[in-house]
């Protein structure tokens, strides 16, 4: 009798263990969660729009800056001269136009005997040419003044400076990337859910985010679900023929779908100093009751 009872207990324990393992495996495979999630942020590449020597550098790597803060300045000497040269050219052309205008109006009042139509037409054409040169001179002045303002580079957003490799005295070329600015107000989570879990995903659903460190959890909300991914099993081969890769019917890997998640604004303001783009976290969808 004792042997029979002991056997039943063992069977019950084994069955319970198998059931628990099955439920855990089922949740792991089909449950609404993923460990494949990354903290992301919008990154602004700071570039110079003008060339010149880096005169002052007011920032350090990983420094926090506010939108509009002066980050660095480029030597203004050449650009100040360009503005003065454009101003001088504009004044000269204004004087020449005034003279040409006066001459044309005076000749318009003369009779056909005192001046020929050809001379009058020449005066008109000269006046039109000066008007065109004057418009170009005004444009050149605006461009020179714009280039002068571009010698001062300001922060386009609140955020952190990263990958700063330039130093004062270095020569900067127009279009050269100087550093990156991580926008502090743009952090979000990009989670990759297996296609078997799509039934749990919907816009507006709440999620719980746990960073890899596991020190705390954050709230979030699904704001976007990817609608296309690359088909890795097929591509275009030679002679424009479909190159379909062989597969193994007994092994099927679920594709992963990118899902964008917004961190709850109330929590974002309190944890923004600890957010690092590129780090890993776990995301679990909160199932409705």
UniProtKB/TrEMBL annotation:
Residues 44-182 form the Multidrug resistance protein MdtA-like barrel-sandwich hybrid domain. InterPro entries: AaeA-lik-b-barrel, MdtA-like_BSH, MFP_Efflux_Pump, RND_pump_MFP. The keyword Flavoprotein does not apply. It holds the Pfam family Beta-barrel_AAEA. Residues 83-147 form a coiled coil. The chain crosses the membrane at residues 7-25. Residues 186-285 form the p-hydroxybenzoic acid efflux pump subunit AaeA-like beta-barrel domain. GO terms for molecular function: transmembrane transporter activity. GO terms for cellular component: membrane. Keywords: Coiled coil, Membrane, Transmembrane, Transmembrane helix. The keyword tRNA-binding does not apply. Belongs to the membrane fusion protein (MFP) (TC 8.A.1) family. This is Efflux RND transporter periplasmic adaptor subunit. It comes from Pseudomonas spelaei.
